[in-house]
Write the structure tokens for this entry.
Amino acid sequence: MAKQKDMGNMDTFAGAFENGQYTLPNLPYGYDALEPMYDQQTLTLHHDKHHAGYVKGLNDALSRLDNARKAKDFATVKAASIDLAFNGSGHILHTLFWHSMKPGGNGGQMPVELKGAFEESFGSADSAQAHFAAATKAVEGSGWGVLAFEPVSQKVLVLQCEKHQNLTIWGVVPLLVCDVWEHAYYLKYQNNRAAWVDNFIKLADWDFAAQRLAAAKSCVTELRK
């Protein structure tokens, strides 16, 4: 069984790209570690089948684009580019999703820096969590709730990301993401997405979000010099 992640020494995307190919990373915890709020059967299928499918689709799209360049026949570029965006976004978001949760969540605690960012951007940490939950529950069709750092205003935003790659803002850095495609929760919650989102909030790893926020702010500072 995988060990719980160490926030002080963690590469979120370790195992997501190796030897020139996108790869399926290991979970940062065991398959049963999020029980009972996220059941082992769903987590296993979600990671081993669905996430693996996006990894395969991403590599396939890149291979098709490579073949088109070699053949100097670009008739397939549009379709392959759509698949590239869809599967690539799915791979990245799922990798972030596994790290967006941890066994037991944060136990109601939140890092001071993240709480301050929430107060600045949303008025309070409670308002930020309520906004995130409401937006995620209301995503049309299949998609994601995304808590993100927006580098122009240097504020935190909540986005509804449909079909992985739609309805985003270029340049944002995802801090925490919640998957609300039905495959993410249907075995346990059936069509009760709201119950799944409420339990995701209880599992949310705010330490992870705070770490990504600090890194994003540091990068923006360097880029603005």
